[in-house]
Fold each of these.
Amino acid sequence: MDSDFITEVERAFGDSRDDALMQRAGEIIKKGGLVAIPTETVYGLAGNALDPESSKRIYAAKGRPSDNPLIVHIAEFDALGPIVREIPEKARLLAEKYWPGPLTMIFKKSDRVPKETTGGLDTVAVRMPVNKTALSFIKAAGGYIAAPSANSSGRPSCTTAAHVYEDLCGKIPLIIDGGDVGIGLESTIVDMTGDVPVLLRPGYISHSQLEEVLGTVLIDPNVNGAELGGDIRPKAPGMKYKHYAPRGELYIVKGGEQACTDRINSECRIHKERGETAAVICLNTEVEKYTADVVSSLGNTYEDAAHNLFRCLREMDEKKIEYMYIRAFDGEGLGMALMNRIVRAAGHKFIEV
Ligand code: AMP
Ligand code: MG
């Protein structure tokens, strides 16, 4: 289905100027089609979550393995009841605090949600975004939108409409351009189906923020990067696949500051001698330390890094960089979320110094 559509890109403003556009986008969804939308985390590729054929189209457009489930997006809390078997008290508390927002919760699904949407699982992931354009789009489209990240499967998620166009041009009829996204990393995912909630994917909302509301929250062992075998069906199936990956080889360098700097500089020198292209990805404060020809800054803070990481990885592809080096992020919160993404982008390649 490489060029089934002429892909239009339409600007949205998040207010009443968008009414006609929302109407048109909603109609596309109701007819089983797909539309890319902005959210506060990353751009999403939206289809009707309750229509198995729509979900199949999402998997096809992304080239996504069909056992990697989709997140269902809703625009109001009352929409949750019909698609889940129960709403645990703890989920209610978390929703009160963090919905709308960058938080996805896993519930036992009701029969309303087709298995095509949940990758064959009996559970469903649900999120209520805070982005105004996303909310009015969900309402216009019937209330239940399956929306995985709008990148081609395996590539870095999209933080601008231009990234979406790069990946999905010809595969969908419409991209809604809401400008640069705010956060830049996908939502935090928490499994609420057991007695104790489990963090499956770290994001902007941190483990300690979850524990403030819920008490103990376990961290799934795969969050920090363990490798999974082919037959395992992990709780957050996206974890099984190489993800967010640039075309070149990314290495994560772990260890003391000076040792990391020395090692990265020497690796880049060796690449240069061999006629290979190499780059360092780092925070602004570190740029001066590196001698590579390409040193790309993620900004001053971890917030900046979250915002810029996927764009930076895509730029590495544009610059045809063959080898990239990044120092491990540390800490809880965004450090954990950033680390989770780069471990996958690197295909678990570490250099310990
Ligand atoms: P993306 O839409 O690209 O942000 O990826 C969505 C991710 O949500 C998937 O890769 C899964 O890891 C996770 N997910 C969706 N539904 C479920 C579910 N029912 N149980 C566990 N994880 C889920
Ligand atoms: Mg994704």
Amino acid sequence: MKVMVIGGGGREHAVIRKLRENPDITELYALPGNAGMAGDAVCVPIGAKDIASIVSFAEDNAIDYAVVTPDDPLVLGCVDALEEIGVPCFGPRSEAAKIEGSKVFAKDLMKKYGIPTARYEVFTELEAALAYVRSCPIPIVVKADGLALGKGVVVARSREEAEDAVRESMENHKFGKSGERLVIEEFLEGPEVSVLAFTDGKTLVPMVSSMDHKCAWDGDKGPNTGGMGTVAPNPWYTPAVAARCMEEIFLPTVQAMNAEGRPFKGCLYFGLMLTKDGPKVIEYNCRFGDPETQVVLPLLESDLFTVMRACTEGRLGEVEVKFKDDAACCVILASRGYPGSYEKGFPLEIPDKLRQQVYVAGAALRDGQLVTNGGRVLGCTAVAETLPEAIEAAYAVAEQVKFENAFCRRDIGRRALQALAEV
Ligand code: AMP
Ligand code: GLY
């Protein structure tokens, strides 16, 4: 079968590696992919948001199945367009991807169906939003309604910071149309857990839990990033918490989307905060997380392609979805300066023996040499029997694949280890 994966980062590399385990897949394409994954898939220079070209490529190459991974094409209707020409897909249609595409939609959905989340207000007028943040309790969280490359959320710890966030979004249009409407919500406290789940719109099967590290620097300091590293499983996510999430959050979300006439198929990502009043939803994503996928999929024992097709065909209840009992850690090697401006084009060497442990997020080919080409460049990943071993092994990989101007957080997994001691 001919399969194409839309997207080009480390998450897509992890999906591609896992798909390759299925011998029925004879040809695997990445659109656009990146030069660092060329050994695992044929990279085709078509952008993930160029839906017309994606559809033509699928038609011209008789593609049998598509995995649409990033948020933009999902929200823009890539799955709808491919299904129209008869290509089955893993991923939600646009109407369901709205659960990530609009925070106002997601918050209203949770309110309507009683799914626990932070209290919030929605604003479309600058003056009203400013008046609100001048009087509300601090800290407060300001969120752009639409997609903003993971940068549309500000946790404001002072009134000034909250006002700045409102002005940046509504007055200076930092996020374009995405920031014309704001959700301003209550600040929640507690450990954060990411749970990705397979769903066919009826059955929902959570994957192994994970923990992201969003801040750029050690000790959770510095600017917010797409994610600087992950570990799985997340020690805070005990069986009791998992059972409660299933009953109060996961299944109600699937049912709510059905009730709204927006059945969700694909990977639904729950960003959760375990507050003293129980688990609450911080955010939904309509897709695999990055870099959560880089620790979750290496722990998947079952065949990914089989599970994905079962989601597409509404048969998820009939297939086995099994995870290894091991632990995994992914350390992101980024370009110095990220998430701000950074230089690109530094040569990149990945020793052959480590290739299977490195997911390439941002690389290009220059005169036959692999060079850095992004903020997040590599995800160094290891699986081991225990979390401390996985963390150590992931850092050992990171030590061996360094490139000029690289940096990584030195404390990925540290909080998880502390949690292990506490839980
Ligand atoms: P998001 O882009 O929605 O994942 O938000 C980025 C980060 O902001 C989350 O991972 C949380 O750490 C933090 N955050 C978002 N919403 C809240 C909230 N209501 N209370 C506290 N922290 C939050
Ligand atoms: N790592 C968080 C995300 O993918 O949104």
